[in-house]
């Protein structure tokens, strides 16, 4: 059976929320239907503003943008806004899309947390970090690596979208994963914000060698020191060789523990719009080249 992930479609909804402006309002179906659950009723959000910054003056606390720490400040402003996503499909196409979603959910419910055979060709390999924040200090450690696979197999089903395989440092040391490498393994199927992620891989076999230099521990830790935090976790940056995820554990002043995930650019680029790496990837993808002569972005 051929499986496609309808939750990652960007042609179903458009949103005028300011955070999506740099992507021309494009949002994933998962963001609308599962994360925000804002269609068709819409959603309320609070726009944080600073009276000083709007006049071109610096923050008295030296912040660069308005955030949660600004509440209570004399110059802090808050505006309640109601927004409704726009459905870009006609009624018939939207009905077909909902059927795809239902079929995908049924398929995922059957295989979630099961161990299954996985096969495919690696598109991208990138580090996967963990950070602990406490008392104003941040400690970073390398948890492993993320293998990005597209058009692979999950069990006997061909998965015609991107999925991810999490591997530990010892797996990288043993197998030296690089782009273009064809692999087979057994792993546990999980879902993370609409994405299929393979956990706890074993029985890894290399069917075909790839190109490039494998990541090493030292190289990954050097890269994360100069990385920039991306405020938006876009699929473009997740699919880029230099977009690295970090699992964050933060001890707050009130004693509570927050757990969340950040996305860093290992090239130090602050925002995806205008990113030269994404521009190069698009140019390489559209270039017409003879079979066997395809180019890759070297990591």
| Beta-strand residue fraction | 35-45%
Categorize the overall geometry. Answer: globular
Query: Major beta sheet, specifics?
Result: 5 strands, mixed, barrel
Strand order of the largest sheet: 7-8-9-11-10
> Would you give the CATH topology of the largest domain?
OB fold (Dihydrolipoamide Acetyltransferase, E2P)
Which structural class is indicated by helix and strand composition?
Answer: alpha+beta
Q: What is the structure about, briefly put?
A:
With 299 residues, this protein is α+β, with helices and mostly antiparallel strands.
Q: How does this structure look, described?
A:
This protein has 299 residues and is an alpha+beta fold. The chain is built from seven helices and 14 strands. The chain has a five-stranded mixed beta barrel with strand order 7-8-9-11-10. A three-stranded antiparallel beta sheet has the order 3-2-6. Residues 288-299 have low confidence and may be disordered. The protein has helices spanning 29-35, 51-54, 91-111, 169-175, 217-225, 235-238, 276-286, and strands at residues 2-3, 13-14, 26-27, 43-50, 76-83, 86-87, 115-134, 137-154, 157-167, 182-192, 195-208, 228-230, 243-251, 257-265. It is globular, with a radius of gyration of 21 Å. A hairpin with a 2-residue loop joins β7 (115-134) and β8. The chain has two domains: 11-88, no CATH class; 112-286, OB fold (Dihydrolipoamide Acetyltransferase, E2P).
Topology:
Elements: E1 2-3, E2 13-14, E3 26-27, H1 29-35, E4 43-50, H2 51-54, E5 76-83, E6 86-87, H3 91-111, E7 115-134, E8 137-154, E9 157-167, H4 169-175, E10 182-192, E11 195-208, H5 217-225, E12 228-230, H6 235-238, E13 243-251, E14 257-265, H7 276-286
Parallel strand pairs: 1-9, 7-13, 9-11
Antiparallel strand pairs: 2-3, 2-6, 4-5, 7-8, 7-10, 8-9, 10-11, 12-14, 13-14
């Amino acid at each position: 059976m051929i499986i496609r992930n309808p939750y990652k479609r960007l042609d179903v909804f458009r949103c005028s929320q300011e955070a999506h402006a740099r992507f021309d309002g494009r949002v994933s179906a998962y963001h609308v239907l599962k994360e925000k659950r804002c269609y068709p009723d819409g959603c309320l959000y609070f726009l944080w503003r600073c009276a000083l910054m709007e006049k071109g003056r610096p923050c008295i606390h030296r912040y660069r943008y308005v955030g949660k720490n600004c509440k209570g400040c004399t110059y802090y402003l808050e505006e309640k806004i109601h927004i409704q996503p726009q459905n870009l499909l006609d009624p018939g196409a939207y009905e077909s899309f909902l059927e795809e979603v239902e079929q995908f959910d049924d398929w995922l419910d059957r295989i979630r947390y099961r161990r299954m055979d996985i096969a495919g060709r690696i598109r991208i390999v990138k580090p996967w970090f963990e950070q602990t924040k406490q008392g104003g200090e941040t400690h970073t450690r390398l948890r492993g690596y993320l293998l990005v696979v597209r058009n692979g197999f999950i069990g006997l089903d061909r998965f015609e979208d991107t999925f991810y395989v999490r591997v530990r440092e010892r797996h990288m040391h043993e197998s030296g994963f690089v782009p273009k490498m064809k692999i087979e393994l057994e792993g546990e199927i999980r879902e993370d914000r609409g994405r299929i992620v393979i956990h706890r891989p074993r029985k890894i076999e290399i069917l075909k060698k790839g190109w490039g230099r494998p990541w090493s521990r030292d190289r990954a830790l050097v890269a994360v020191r100069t990385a920039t935090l991306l405020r938006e976790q876009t699929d473009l940056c997740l699919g880029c060789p230099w977009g690295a995820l970090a699992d964050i554990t933060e001890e707050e002043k009130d004693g509570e523990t927050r757990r969340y995930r950040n996305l860093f650019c290992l090239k130090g680029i602050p925002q995806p719009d205008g990113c030269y790496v994404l521009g190069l990837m698009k140019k390489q993808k559209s270039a017409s080249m003879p079979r066997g002569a395809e180019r890759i972005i070297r990591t």
